[in-house]
Design goal:
There is one protein chain. This protein has one helix spanning 2-40. By secondary structure, the protein is mainly alpha-helical. It starts with a helix and ends with a helix. It comes from Malikia spinosa. This is Entericidin.
């Protein structure tokens, strides 16, 4: 039972970390796009 609980907790933490990482990548791509757009003008 403890192993099952630990696995559930670990899965939850990984899911939250993954969401945060994906969001950060999206922001980085958006900033890079803004820089390219400003350079093109």
């Amino acid at each position: 039972m403890r192993l099952f609980t630990a696995l559930i907790a670990l899965s939850g933490l990984l899911a939250l970390g993954g969401c945060n990482t994906v969001r950060g990548i999206g922001q980085d791509i958006g900033q890079a796009g803004s820089v390219i757009q400003k350079a093109a003008q």
